[in-house]
Amino acid sequence: MTGFASEEYSQESLSVTCDIKTINHRFLDVSIRSHELPNDVDVFIRELVSKKIKRGSIDIRFNIVQPKNTSYEFNIKSLDNLLAIIDANKNFNSKDLSFGDVKDVPGIINTHNHSQISPAILKNVFKVALSKLITTKNNEGMKMQKIFESKIKKINKGNQLISKGSKTIIKRRNARLRSKINEHISNINEERLEQEISLLLLKHDVAEEQERISIHLNALNKELNLKNSRGKKIDFILQELFRETSTLSVKLDDPAHKSRALDMKLLVEEMREQAQNVE
Fold this sequence. Notes:
Elements: E1 3-11, E2 14-23, E3 28-33, H1 39-52, E4 56-65, E5 70-74, H2 76-88, H3 99-102, E6 109-113, H4 119-184, H5 190-203, H6 207-224, H7 231-251, H8 255-274
Parallel strand pairs: 3-4
Antiparallel strand pairs: 1-2, 2-4, 5-6
């Protein structure tokens, strides 16, 4: 589910800002953008995200501002090696070298930057930002549930209307087929006629599709009302529901019922798009 949250900590000349942005993704993908995070903080963040969020692309950015606290030290081993090489050359004398001559030689001086922000502060800032994000996502999830429930009711209503008129349509189709046949055939085998009509009627029978649509809608409602509903299962149910509504719209030839079936199919397609936001 798409979302954004931010948290900031500041004290004197120190400040930490954590921004979390999420977008739809089939799986969980965590990206942390900061070169100043200790390894244990990085591991802590990834483990906490995997516990709280099931799928989505998670972009985490830290902006850390602190005074420079840098220390330097000579790499004695590298310096001794450099001096030995110089002394081995008769044209040079290591005693004539000054600090300015060797300070820029790679590996002679080691620089260490020390962070003044403790890992505990970084972890706490992230936890607060993540908590804000989850609250936002939960609120969006509740809104989405209401949208799904509204669409489910509309699909159910369409399915019921189609079912209600199916018997009348079958009788009408039966009479129409008999009338057409009687126009062209004077001497007809009644048993053979019944078989052919039964096959034609069976071709347009949608009772099985309607039953499966009802089953899938009930399963979808049940999943949506779970405390921890699963986006992947919702995806699967909607995929099956889309297949049944597609078949239904193809089989129906009554204009009014066919229009209802197409509306049902469109509602399912809309839910499939929205379901990408569900974890």
